[in-house]
Amino acid sequence: MASNGENDKSLIVSFGEMLIDFVPTVSGVSLAEAPGFLKAPGGAPANVAIAVARLGGKAAFVGKLGDDEFGHMLAGILKENDVIASGINFDKGARTALAFRYPTR
């Protein structure tokens, strides 16, 4: 598609996962020994969509999230970052994915 002006923004669509990363509050200990965790939005396709939007592009995310508090929180984060989130399928039979990051040493 040819672009004929600076205001023309092509839509970049990311397909895939979005999840909650749980990051230990202390490094140098095992996950079991971590005193607490911070929750952070994650998932490479969603990260790309947010990065595109923050850089001034037009981005959308398409994927499935659990119809739960975490899923709705993640959809809200996309919207707060000007990512089109109308392609999200909320599944009542699924739970939003959670990942625990190993602390760096």
TrEMBL record:
Pfam families: PfkB. It comes from the Eukaryota. Residues 10-101 form the Carbohydrate kinase PfkB domain. Gene3D superfamilies: 3.40.1190.30. Transmembrane segments: none annotated. Keywords: ATP-binding, Carbohydrate metabolism, Kinase, Nucleotide-binding, Transferase. Belongs to the carbohydrate kinase PfkB family. This is Carbohydrate kinase PfkB domain-containing protein.
